[in-house]
Amino acid sequence: MNPMQLKTPEERSAIAKKSHATRKANKEKREAEDREKRYYRADLNAEIHALEAKIEALNFNYKMSAISGSLTNKSLLYAEDIIKHALPWKKSPGVYFLVQDNEVVYVGQSVHIYSRIAQHHGKTFDRYAFVPCKEALLDVLESLYIHVLKPKLNGNFNEKEKSAPIRFDALLSMI
Length: 175
Fold this sequence. Notes:
The chain is 54% helix and 12% strand. By secondary structure, it is an alpha+beta fold. The protein has a three-stranded antiparallel beta sheet with strand order 2-1-3. The relative contact order is 0.07.
């Protein structure tokens, strides 16, 4: 005899409901596991594609570095190396010097030296140098260098003295 036949209709109904709920829970669990596997697979595929793209970029950089080596005798840096060693862009106040044929031909000052040097289109120079300086001291330091070096492209105040932000006698009275 079948054990279910010994059960009351209410007990059989309860057993059927429990069985149905168990099957439903098991089905939902399997579906969740399948979804998780698909997501995991998708993540792995995305990671594989990213690695393949990185390998392709490295191979391209390697080939271009070889070309650069043959053209310029320099190998190319990787973007990561460039970024790692990049310096922060900041204000760079100081006194700068324009040099032509081993002679200081001009002395100037700026709170942005690099931008200012690029503006000297009319002056002939083949090199430059600069001394960092606090903004508050720019006039003093530039004046000292102009009076000491007497660069030919800086203007003249009179026949004996170069034009500078601070006259030489005023500098001496600051001591």
